[in-house]
Amino acid sequence: MRFPATDLAVDLPCVMGIVNVTPDSFSDGGLHADADSAVAHGLLLASEGAAILDIGGESTRPGSEPVSLADELAHVLPVIERLVIGTPALISVDTTKAAVARAALAAGATIINDVTALRGDPGMAALVAEHGCPVCLMHMLGEPRTMQDDPHYDDVVGEVVAFLEQRMTAALAVGVREEQILLDPGIGFGKTLQHNLLLLAHLDRIAALGRPVVLGASRKRFIGALLGAEQRQREVGTVATTVLGLVQGAAVVRVHDVRPNVEALRVAQAVIEAGEAGDAHAARGAGADGAAGAPHRANVADRARGRGAP
Ligand code: HH2
């Protein structure tokens, strides 16, 4: 499957492993709250095939309270410094604060994952433009403290697409280049179960904006609602979102359980590529215009981008 050109120094699709250095994250809060344990966890995820490690020092779970700058720096910096040396994986910092992003970049992080899509800290957009690093722009309705209080949309997919398009335009206007940008529908950020399902089903409409799509569905509450499962039992449900997300055009899956998602991605990608190769072969066999005998269906990658087969 072909993905848009990007400044990310990894092949797409790929897995982004989650390293939460927090006491209160929704799924793994407190498990890796000290630097030694977070580094060990990051090394494990990288050895399981994570091409990117996303280091976060502030939980964004529904109802979470903000963390001070000093605390967030103290959480993430020692972990980033050690993972930059200890693993070939790219390091992403999951932060809304420009000062944390700046320090993380200086310590060797290469990606900024800002769940406010550059709306949270006035210094963030300029930092991304100046540094030229890849940045993930995510949709969120409201703020973490209140976002799950009865979220409402008239057309959730259309509104998320319009928001991401607007945030991309705003970023480009301050000097961020298109190749730096990744887009994320923000699964679970001000969304009901039905909103999350619709976004997953129509991820191709976000991919059609022309930038790689990041999917963060891992162990989230909607999977628990469908399965009646606690966070740790949502691994298989998460793998389902990875495979369907890839078919719909997701380029990066942000997950807690790296190995099963790497394996699922590899197998699903092989099937998609075999289908593409078969379609190309059939089209060649049908002559230059691909008319007679060519399959009358779009291949999976084209469908994922909202284009029909030639
Ligand atoms: N989800 C979470 C945090 N950061 N970033 C992106 N780009 N996309 C997401 O879906 C996303 C994200 C929430 O998950 P987690 O990090 O596991 O929990 P917490 O925020 O409680 O630390």
Give an account of the 3D structure.
The protein is α/β, with parallel strands linked by helices. Strands 6-5-4-3-2-1-8-7 form an 8-stranded parallel β-sheet. It contains 11 helices and 8 strands. The chain has helices spanning 35-47, 69-86, 98-106, 124-131, 156-173, 193-201, 203-207, 221-227, 235-247, 258-285, 300-304; strands at residues 14-20, 52-56, 90-94, 111-114, 135-138, 181-184, 213-215, 250-255. α1 (35-47) packs across α2, α2 runs parallel beside α3 and α9 runs parallel beside α10. The model is unreliable at 288-310 (pLDDT under 50). It starts with 13 loop residues before the first strand and ends in a 6-residue tail after the last helix. It binds 6-hydroxymethylpterin-diphosphate (HH2). Residues 18, 20, 22, 25-27, 56, 59-61, 94, 113, 115, 136, 138, 184, 186-187, 214, 216, 254 line the site of 6-hydroxymethylpterin-diphosphate (HH2).
Please specify the SSE layout and strand pairing.
Layout lengths: L13 E7 L14 H13 L4 E5 L12 H18 L3 E5 L3 H9 L4 E4 L9 H8 L3 E4 L17 H18 L7 E4 L8 H9 L1 H5 L5 E3 L5 H7 L7 H13 L2 E6 L2 H28 L14 H5 L6
Parallel strand pairs: 1-2, 1-8, 2-3, 3-4, 4-5, 5-6, 7-8
Helix pairs in contact: 1-2, 2-3, 9-10
Bound molecules: 6-hydroxymethylpterin-diphosphate.
